[in-house]
From TrEMBL:
It holds the Pfam family Tom37. This is Mitochondrial outer membrane transport complex Sam37/metaxin N-terminal domain-containing protein. InterPro entries: Mito_Protein_Transport_Metaxin (IPR050931), Sam37/metaxin_N (IPR019564). One of its GO terms (cellular component) is SAM complex. It comes from Bracon brevicornis.
Length: 76
């Protein structure tokens, strides 16, 4: 969802089997030779590459995004 809101151009390969990933974690981001399987690290990677969904948000909206990120982290 974060990638979509940030406008990140990516291809999604859906799977529900973490055993098919490099370290057994979902989600996984692969970019060239880089593989990331932590939500926070994926978001940091997007931000470092100038894809940020939070740029135009108010403080209230930013806190809602943090809550959503936490919910995603806990449910995966």
């Amino acid at each position: 969802a974060y990638a979509k809101f940030s406008g990140v151009p990516l291809a999604v390969n859906p799977t529900s089997n973490p055993f098919r990933t490099p370290r057994g974690h979902l989600p996984v981001l692969k970019c060239g030779t880089t593989t990331i399987d932590s939500i926070q690290e994926i978001i940091q990677f997007f931000r470092k590459n100038n894809y940020n969904a939070d740029f135009h948000l108010s403080p209230k909206q930013s806190s809602e995004v943090l809550g959503y990120e936490y919910m995603l982290k806990e449910s995966l």
